[in-house]
Amino acid sequence: MPSSLEFALGITLVPPASPARELLAAAAARAGLRVVDGVEGAALALVDLTSPDSGPALRTLLDSPRASHITLVALVEPTEQGFSAAEPLRPADVLTIPVSPHELVFRLHRAAGRHLEREGQERGQEDLALLLELTADYAETSDVEALLHGVTRRLAEKLDIARATLVMLGRNADEGVIVAASDDPTLKDLRIELSRYPEIREVMRTGRPVVMEEAPTHPLLGDVERRAVAARGIHAIAALPLPIRGQVRGVLLLRAAGRRRTFTSREIDFLTTVAHATAVALRNASVLQSVRGQTEAEKTARLAAEEQAASFKPYQLFFAHVSEGVAILDDKASVLSLNPSGAAMLDLPAPEARGRHLHQVTQPVDDGVLMELVTAASRGEARSGVDVEVRTATGRRLTLSMSAAPLRDEDAATILSFRDVTDARRLEDELRQTKDFLERLIDSSVDAIIAADLKGRIILFNKGAEALVGYTAQEAMAGVTVEQLYPQGVARRIMSTLRGPEHGGKGRMSLTREELVNRAGERVPVNMTASLVYEGGREVFSVGIFTDMRDRMKLERKLSDAETRLEESEKSAVIVALAGTAAHELNQPLTSVMGYAELLKRKLKEEDFAWKPVDIIYREAERMAEIVRKIGKITRYETKAYMGEQQILDLDKATSHED
């Protein structure tokens, strides 16, 4: 069985001298495991409780510091005592002897999968715990420098890597500043040339994480960088972006050396989350300070915002009567003014919004979308119709359609307008779901369903229609008209019928038999119904439902042929019965006539006057006897022309197959 495990896990046998050792060696290799001696390097243990020496070896295993990290598989006797002995161990699986090699491979493979799953959950819990600690530190620590060093130090310890560094980008693209490093708490404000760090430049260019496995040979590095990396014993490098207001403003740089050979995808996901959290903390440092209380700096900022808002008074008077929400922002995305409609939408009094960051006022579900909108406006780009999910001050969740544009370049101010589209988006989703359901329903119909506008252009062509006439839906809607699907003149006749009251009422046509013309030019018989669709009393389009009648008509023809054959068979049966009866009834009198005629001939001489008439009677009786014989042999109904259009039974053909 091929292994699907990410790494080759170690498995040990308890006790080591168990008779199951040879069986385990073969099964472990097939399960993608490696057999190890002792608990060091073991992720799983096969405990043979049937072995007499299992007790001491099991106690040694359970007393080991690694016991809680080892997954147990127990081998027991198939008895009540055997299962009772395994119960206190709480093994991941239990096998009974004798165990087949195939079962052992399967059970070991499954136990290894459970072990990896448990390890993943434990690591996920550790990641979450560290992330919660970092988040708490971001919220409570005022010493940013100590905070950043603490972040890098804890990341290096958790991942067992050589170094974690936070690099902020300088004013130009060639300069960076190291603000914190895991191995040196005093290292800060160290300027570096980014030309020596291709991984940082790549993150700046793409805005995505860069992971270099086998760093000493990675093509992204130049010859000089490769030699430097190899000299330091670095095996892998990971660089994660710190996005601030839509731009990469820093990089979290990690280097793996020593026992650490690479970074797993789970670790990269975790580091990406940490990098984003760090970026948000750096971006909102002033906002976090304002949440803790009213400081002098905060009061000064609020007064400055109020003074600046006064300059927008003419706009405020105008926006006060606008039904949409309107906010005026400064160059830091803080609210200078919020109109009454916007305040009502956000459940926040306008005076309380003034001076607060837009993120605090709207509490967006995805702050990246909102900040990208505002950042674009600050660059002079107008954006409109961007949906942003927000939480109001009272906890309501709304979908706002936002538009942003620069207001006055000299003040770097932005005007943000928004309207509540929550119900509209919900209705759109419901309509979209209904539309998808109806489309699936129409496509799953065996019958052909075709709709066309009043000019004959096809607007709906389901799978049944494709099968019936041979066009694909794309071909039909691209260039085929309804008139091409009918014989000449039929499409106009059907439209005329739909507009009349005779066949199901105006706008409707009841079931009728028609013909369609398929792609090959063949006529296909169908049963169809049709109707006109109206909007406000005006014809919009027509729709027809067509049932392929070819198979049914073949069946009808077969039934008709069978009925004809049955009728002929019944006729033949009557003729045969009648012929048999007639032959039986005529044979006796004919025999008497022939007998008496023969007696008369014997008594008369040829020269007698009566001999010739008696001879004629005898010969005609013989001919009648031959006819009666043929009648008795009739087995089928065959006729021939007699006089004019009259038909009589053809005795020769009706009895010829007997000859």
UniProtKB/TrEMBL annotation:
Residues 384-433 form the PAC domain. SMART domains: GAF, HisKA, PAS. InterPro entries: Biofilm_reg_signaling, GAF, GAF-like_dom_sf, HisK_dim/P_dom, HisK_dim/P_sf, PAS, PAS-assoc_C, PAS-like_dom_sf. This is histidine kinase. It catalyses: ATP + protein L-histidine = ADP + protein N-phospho-L-histidine. It comes from Myxococcus llanfairpwllgwyngyllgogerychwyrndrobwllllantysiliogogogochensis. Gene3D superfamilies: 1.10.287.130, 3.30.450.40, PAS domain. One of its GO terms (molecular function) is phosphorelay sensor kinase activity. GO terms for biological process: regulation of DNA-templated transcription. PROSITE patterns: PAC, PAS. Its EC number is 2.7.13.3. Pfam families: GAF, HisKA, PAS, PAS_4. Residues 434-477 form the PAS domain.
